[in-house]
Amino acid sequence: MIESTSGRFDRTDHALVIGLGRSGRASVDVLRARIGSVVATDEAPAEELADALDELRAANVTFVPPSELEAALENVTVAVLSPGIALNNPLVRRVQAAGIPVFSEVEVAYRLCKAPIVAVTGTKGKTTTTALVGALFAAAGKTVHVGGNIGNPLIRETVDAAAGDWVVAEVSSFQLESIRSFKPRISLILNVTPDHLDRYHSMEEYAEAKFRIFTNQGLGDTFVGNLDDPIVASASEGQYGDRIKARTLWFSDEPHRQSTLYLRNHELIVYAPPAGDPRPVDILPVREIALRGRHNVENVMGAVLVALAAGLPVGAIREGVRTFRPLGHRLEPVAEVDGVQYVDDSKATNPGSVIAAMRAFAERPIVLIAGGKAKGTDFAEMGKVISSRAKAVVLIGDAAEEIAGVVKRAKVELASSMEDAVARARDLADPGDVVLLSPGCASFDMFRSAEHRGEQFANAVHALEKTIAHAR
């Protein structure tokens, strides 16, 4: 291994990028122009890496097959880890065994960043909230860069951010696992509910990964938390309370002595300034939020409190919330066919998100399309809500039988494809119903991604729409 002051990511460093997904490829692209040299590796089969390998060749970056890794490590000072790869992956362990420090892409992005960072995490709602925070900063006239787990790699956003800009980052537990000095100016945890238990041994371990978001924050920083989520609220207690060195602001559904932002009569978002003029400030009526579902009220409150913590004017915050619209694959209306509304919530990849989505349609009968690749989570509570709120459920993917086993009252059908699922849902639905794709699982058993799954749902719905139109 070459001797260097590794981790500065300047010409003295020679990096190995581990993983060639979207994040890894962005890391290669950014770092090759800034540091001594870059090589990359990935365990995936060559046919799955074809596009990535073409990009590496075009950039004159060497791909190191895992079988040749040890020799290549002689010329490496630092490794950059893509978020989809666990720290206990054998490939990562081989790099660590060689004495080479491993940094997450988020950590590297932070070290290259000149602007203050807002970091958002949570089991559900973090992408919507991250996008909304970005919209609030833009509404206030700030130059804002939005990246991370939201879809565009954070390193691309931070490398171009000026000192007077703001960066808003969606960060997952996977990305937080391997941070070292990552220190957002403002951090937000929306919620912590069961997810990714195929990667974590327990909920405690999963929560600990989320709590790393505030580990390095200090007196000049702010932590924002959801007081109604028991795991997030526990961050103010015991060992975690001792670890939070930042100013702490809480939001909640009802007024509470710890709450800086709360709902009055469940109808109005109210701000209780923690300093200065103590009189409460009315922010926005809940009815003016364009996002559907009670869970999105929490998301909005988290984003609003972040914006207030950053000193954004209340008027800009109000306008930003009022004009914000749902993101793709998150309770996104697709079409109404024969009086049945079809809604794409493909990004709901854990049971808690499915429960929130179903509660968002309390006034309409639901035919649910769910299933996919399970992530080690318990479907029992999801099964109870399906039984009480859905008239029927159409199940797809590896977890179909497991979910079917916890549904006690709703009609259950199994489908072999998304087209089959939409056809079955159509037969089960009546005018006035909603057909809701909200899988509660990962997509990788049948689809390339959650986005691809949602696109296939939309394609099947539009094909159904055309078939019915031609038949008339």
Fold topology:
Layout: E1 14-18, H1 22-31, E2 37-41, H2 50-58, E3 62-63, H3 69-72, E4 78-81, H4 90-97, E5 102-104, H5 105-112, E6 117-121, H6 126-139, E7 144-148, H7 154-159, E8 166-170, H8 173-177, E9 186-189, H9 203-211, E10 222-226, H10 230-233, H11 238-243, E11 247-252, E12 259-264, E13 268-271, E14 281-285, H12 294-309, H13 314-323, E15 332-337, E16 340-344, H14 351-359, E17 366-371, H15 380-389, E18 390-396, H16 400-404, E19 411-414, H17 418-428, E20 434-437, H18 450-471
* Sheet/helix structural class: alpha/beta
How far do the termini sit from each other?
72 Å
- The spatial strand order of the largest sheet comes to 7-8-6-9-10-11-12-13-14
**What is the number of beta strands?**
20
| Helicity level | 25-40%
Main sheet specs: 9 strands, mixed
Tell me the fraction of residues in β-strands, as a range: 15-25%
Low-confidence stretches: 1-5
- Rg over CA atoms: 23 Å
Mean pLDDT: 92
What is the overall silhouette?
A: globular
Number of helices: 18
